[in-house]
Amino acid sequence: MAHRSRRKALCTHNLNIGSRVPSINPTVTPRINPNIAGTAATVIGRTTPDLKTRPACGDAYRDSNGGCTDQPVTSAEGGGSGGSSGKKGGSGPRQNASQMAASSSRAGVIVAEIDTSLTSAQADELARRHGLARLQSQHFPLLDATIGLFRITDRRSITTVSREFATEAGIRSVQSNFRYVLQEQKTVLTEGDPAQYALAKLRLPQAHMLAHGANVTVAVIDSGIDAKHPELANAIADSFDALGSKEGPHAHGTGIAGAIVAHARLMGSAPAARILAIGAFGTTPNGAESTSFVVLKGLDYAVAHGAQIVNMSFAGPKDALIGRGIAAAAAKGIVMVAASGNAGPKSPPLYPAAETNVIAVSATDAQDRLFAASNRGSHIAVVAPGVDIFLPAPGEKYQMTSGTSFSAAYISGLAALMLERNPALKPGEVRAILMKTARDLGTPGRDDLFGAGEADAYAAVAAASDAPAAEKVPVRQDQPATRASDLPAAAMASDKSAAGEVNRPAAQ
Q1: What percent of the chain has pLDDT over 90?
Q2: 8 Å CB contact between 395 and 34
């Protein structure tokens, strides 16, 4: 009976965004779509045939010949379809720091920068001398470098092989092919109007009186996006399959795109923006994952095809190669936004969010409390809603989902509104305005939990017309800030609301 009550509460609330957004059909009932691989969301919507995905494995779990490997892929970011964490007050990360370090790179594979003067035959011969097989190589204009992907053909460690291979005159640098994991978490239906609160918290309806993100291109480096979803109609400007796997749409990528450009029953933060859909995350038994080499391919494509903003709702370890790519993109004036990560308060900083040139975003809930699984740190710029977010899912369905992934997507859309208002804004100016106009949460002033506070779309877009005007825009006073950091630690990090939410399952 309690479940039916919650379902009724979800399905009978209206989206009060004006005449262009009709109410949610009250006959819609929640259902879990078991065939959306790697998603951690509750899927709600039409009873259309389930999305078909490849049942065996995704690109990140395949060998160079396209076959499935039998090596278990372990998430470096709390991935996987786990059950309850067993901890009071909600879920937490599924791995500790030592587990994360042990599983942060693709087993037996390295990436290396190759001297451009080497031919393919010479690179192959060089690899053979070191017990390696060259899987592929590509020139990346973004870095003005040729990067090769190599498989270790024996049982030597990556550390040993990298040290030996780096001594060759034709090799500029060598590193692990690190793993990256999408930042979402399993959620459950709760009381309230999940489709509405994020818009109100960010003051997006007011911001949309000033801008809608028109003529701004946002690259989404993620899993596959369902371009046919009504919420994304005419919003996907271009698509690129960095995996070469043709895996099709995925709930995470579709939800991220929806948080940015939804414009039918829902409303994204920049409904008129253009999405450059870059499929860089492939299905594995533990969710959707990618690697350094594939992410770099996606970033290189984004820059070459006119992206003004890049959304990176994934996390992994510090990665010199991706760091170079991000620095090069930022130098070209591209705004980089990333999810802080869902590894919880004890996690070290995760990347790319912790890179200097990235706007790192953490998540809050409808009561302005920090999402339990959010990473903390001095690199956090702002927070945005990321708990119980109602978004599109593949197959004309909808999903309820949580994670810093979706908070980052809202901020990417907000940045698009700012760039429509003032295309001359530099990445540093976008970050400064977002932080200056944010509504303070937690300890007064900037802190490691909430950064500068919750983003205020209206104030940020108003300030974007003239970057120095950010100094003149007051912090909004429409509702008092929640001093969550004054609460006991367990209560502050809890996903359980005063209204009596049920405990949430573990992170995925």
Answers
A1: 63
A2: no
pLDDT value, residue 181: 87
Query: What does the alpha-carbon distance between residue 220 and residue 312 come to, in Å, rounded to a whole number?
Result: 7
Pairing state between β 105-114 and 145-152: antiparallel
| pTM value surpassing 0.85 | no
Q: In terms of Cα–Cα distance, which of 404, 402, 428, 396 is closest to 415?
A: 428
pLDDT band per the 50, 70, 90 thresholds, residue 206: very high
Q: How far is CA 488 from CA 41, 178, 492, 494, in A?
A: 29, 36, 6, 10
193 is catalytic: no
DSSP per-residue letters across 442-465: SSSS-BTTTBT-B--HHHHHHHHT
CA dihedral of residues 111, 318, 321, 411 (deg, nearest 10):
130
Q: Is 252 a catalytic residue?
A: yes
Partners of residue 283 on adjacent β-strands = 288
- The ranges assigned to domains in the chain are 181-493
Residues 24 and 47: beta-carbon distance below 8 Å: no
* Given the residues 405, 407, 412, 494, the one annotated as active site: 405
| Mean pLDDT along residues 426-450 | 96
Which entry of 208, 212, 229, 252 is annotated as an active-site residue?
252
Q: State the fold for domain 181-493.
A: Rossmann fold (3.40.50)
> pLDDT tens digits, residue range 174-201?
999 999 988 765 544 333 344 569 999 9
pLDDT tens digits along 28-62:
323 323 222 233 455 555 422 222 333 334 433 34
Question: Does the annotation mark 64 as catalytic?
Answer: no
